[in-house]
Amino acid sequence: MQLSLKTTPRSGQDNDHTMTISGQPAYSKRHWHNTAIRANSHGISLTRDPIMRVDYPTLTRTIASLTAGETDVVALMATIVCETHHSDDRFDWTGFYRVTGPELLKIGPYQGGHGCLVIPFSRGVCGAAARTGQVQLVHDVDNFSGHIACASSTRSELVLPVRNGQGTLLGVFDIDSNQPAAFTRTDADHLTRILDTAFA
Ligand code: SME
Fold this sequence. Notes:
By secondary structure, the protein is an alpha+beta fold. It is 26% helix and 36% strand. α2 (56-67) packs antiparallel against α3 and α2 packs parallel to α5.
């Protein structure tokens, strides 16, 4: 993240400055949230909280323990979303889209800002995951033809198909990040195992 700080003296008031900060505001909302700005007579300092990264063995154990014996799909989705969303600073929007009709996805449990309500299989990253049954690892949403921008801050996405034990497609699990190229194949592999176990 790049920041520049500028202080502007207000007219006639030597000790009273207006501080403006500019940088890359779309990079990550959370980065700004984690940034403390302190100003005193010696100058200005910025401090950041440590970056939080998911520990997949812990996430896997936590979800398995919370969902043990649960078969209700919405209860499972809501719990997986909550635990996953709060496990990693990269995850700015985390949610499920459910198959509710022929070639049709509708919003399920999610965390983050507003999510689009309806996505046909023919559209977007979520539609591509549902249509092809393949994980969609999108490093730059601007290069994905047909990407649906529910939030203009989203830069990269990971969408995984969700199937039950019989192999029927229940929906997709979508994680969006405000950081470019936020996701890796390792994320996809761990999350696929978590979903397969929960919805088996
Ligand atoms: N970007 C997704 C739509 C869902 S939202 O981002 C929450 C897509 O292209 O399918």
